[in-house]
Amino acid sequence: MSSVYPRKSSPSASTTTTAKASEVDNYVSHTLKTTKPLPPITWSNLLNELNWLNVAILTVTPTVSFVGAYYTKLRWETALFAVAYYFFTGLGITAGYHRFWAHRSYQASKFLQYFLAIAGAGAVEGSIKWWSRGHRAHHRYTDTELDPYNAGEGFWYSHVGWMLLKPRRKPGAADVSDLAKDPVVRWQHKYYIPLILLMSIAVPTIIPWLCWGDARGGYVYAGFLRLLFVHHSTFCVNSLAHWLGSTPFDDKHSPRDHFVTALVTIGEGYHNFHHQFPMDYRNAIKWYEYDPTKWFIWVCSLMGLASHLKVFPDNEVRKGQLTMQLKRLRETQESLAWPSDSNDLPVVSWDSYIEQSTKRPLILISGFIHDVGSFIEEHPGGAHWIVKYIGKDATTAFFGGVYDHSNAAHNLLAMKRVGVLHNGIPLAVDDKAIPPSQRLKIARYAELSSTTGASSATYSDVDEKEGLLS
Asked: What domains can you pick out in the chain, each with its CATH number?
């Protein structure tokens, strides 16, 4: 610590301290600068850089599944059991590993904890401690080189590549001290190998054998083919959920929301919401959105097996949505053409306005002078109404005296402004001077700060002889 925050202060030492402290404050950039990654993977070192245990698991599983399915008849009882067992082991990951242990989004009874620990072992995705440590790092360092399944490396890398290849960097630091003290986590970690053999192969083989005499079908379909689906279902949370869909809560990082992803991940597809509010036990916040994991946890709470279900305040969730909605509206707003600002228009006296109206079709409305030459023949009420008010004040006529014009008419009129009448109208307080499209115009905070007092200038100080700009 003394090398970062020296005790003796001097101008040079202070500058050095600030620079070093700023690096330390940004853990990611500091780690990337001060630690060296492993050499890049090439064809010459590929075999040495493969994680052979994961390679074996992820290649043997599909091989046995497809070959076994080709030679084994599928009975309807086995098919139903395989689907049920898929949800059983999948919920062990989504409701157990993910929402309970990695995020502590609810409290679970000991019975439910052991149930989820055993079910999760059947998914063969590592122990709770190992899985949760990587997932917490993923949330903390999303889309950086310290993210163990960094989506920035590509779809296939985040799907399976990160497991097949030895990582070039160690995942970022993540606190798992609570898991190290958890007796259920420690129990599962200690007996993980026998648990995965029991739950991934033995149980799905024995149950169909004892109940309807289909051990082979259970082994192939409920064992290996089911495991293949569970693997790629949960892998999609790292890949598909960062690639497909929308960002209704925040677009700073890659996580996205999509129904298809939810469908293939047992409800984990509303990933943009999840990364914004990871402590929430829900992924889907609307009742009609597909999230069986949420429903499972909720039912467990009704049965007294789960409690203290964490829900992020709805007011803050809606703020997140509003922020993104305003951002999209701002993007649309910036793509449109807007009327000239009153501060950018010349200020013209009444006499000058009358004089110039004899040379070009100028009309005064709400203190602004408009050149309507391009609109005379297009006016829906007829050209004669436009001509009638050239060189006059048509404010009353425009706002109901002759016709109470639409928002569209008001917006179009504002685009034809060419000047401001000297002492014509207190622009800051008259809504008629503001077109409807600008009354709710979105401004950034910096713009609001910089424009404070911008309308304080009065037109009485302007030279009345100034003419219109072309």
From this structure: 1-34 (no CATH), 50-323 (no CATH), 342-461 (3.10.120.10)
